[in-house]
Amino acid sequence: MAASDVTIANLALSRLRAGTISSMGENSPEAKYSSIWYNESRKQLLESFDWGFARRTEILAVHGDAAPTTRWDFRYAMPSGCIAARYIQNPVGTTADPVPYQIEMNDAGTEPTLVTNLEDAVLIYTYDLSTTTLFSPSFVDALSWLLSYNMAWPLTGKGELQDRAERGFNISMRAAAAHDANEQKYEPRRQASWIEARN
User: Fold this and answer.
1) Domain count of the chain?
2) What is the model's pLDDT at position 68?
């Protein structure tokens, strides 16, 4: 059966020995805390790793504010729905040195921007994916454990259940990250010249 936010919440609740829910909007403590913590847990987990199923590649749009020219040549707008910037695609190739960049606020302090010295920058990033049917099974398992951890104390008040959920999450997270990494293959990145010279 395809995963949904409710099935993921019920997996988490079962690990707390709590009742199940039929919807996030029903009038029960289980639904209340599932609703409070589900999206927060989903975003936490997406941010924590470069998941292949949530990865996007986008040509960045130049931001209206000028770049801080003493350090960087270009300022770009962050893509909509970007949970975490992973790296800028080096036009020389995948084995070339990583392209330096930094995330910093715009001049008005109202939104994050990306600054770098590369023109026409292409960003690889993790997207704020909420379509549960696109989640991998191992990601669903890890998300249910993280949701269980986040709900454990407010829902049950039992520290031992929260500790158990933390252990379960750590195990499932390692397995999910390993599975995701096994589904992709990159050319190894070349080491920086100063590292090569040292070796």
Assistant:
1) 2
2) 84
List all residues 6 or more positions away from 81 whose beta carbon is below 8 Å from its beta carbon: 127, 128
Q: Averaged in consecutive runs of 10 residues, what is the pLDDT profile of the chain (199 residues)?
A: 89 96 96 97 98 97 90 96 96 89 95 96 98 96 98 96 97 95 65 49
Q: Pick from 97, 110, 135, 107: which is nearest to 5 by CA? A: 135
- With respect to residue 188, please indicate whether it lies within any of the assigned structural domains: no
Together in a domain, 154 and 168: yes
Shared domain for 45 and 62, answered yes or no, is no
- Tell me what pLDDT residue 194 has: 45
User: What pLDDT, on the 0 to 100 scale, is given for residue 70?
Assistant: 85
Structure tokens belonging to residue 91:
């036009």
Query: What is the domain range of residue 20?
Result: 5-49+136-182
How long, in residues, is the chain?
199
pLDDT at 190: 52
* Structural domain includes residue 95: yes
Distance CA 198, CA 185 (A): 28
**Residue 104 amino acid letter:** E
Secondary structure of 119-167 in the HEC alphabet? CCCEEEEEECCCCHHHCCHHHHHHHHHHHHHHHHHHHHCCHHHHHHHHH
Residue with tokens 């050319």: 187
Residues 73, 109 share a domain: yes
**Cα–Cα distance between 152 and 34 in angstroms, integer?**
10
189: in domain = no
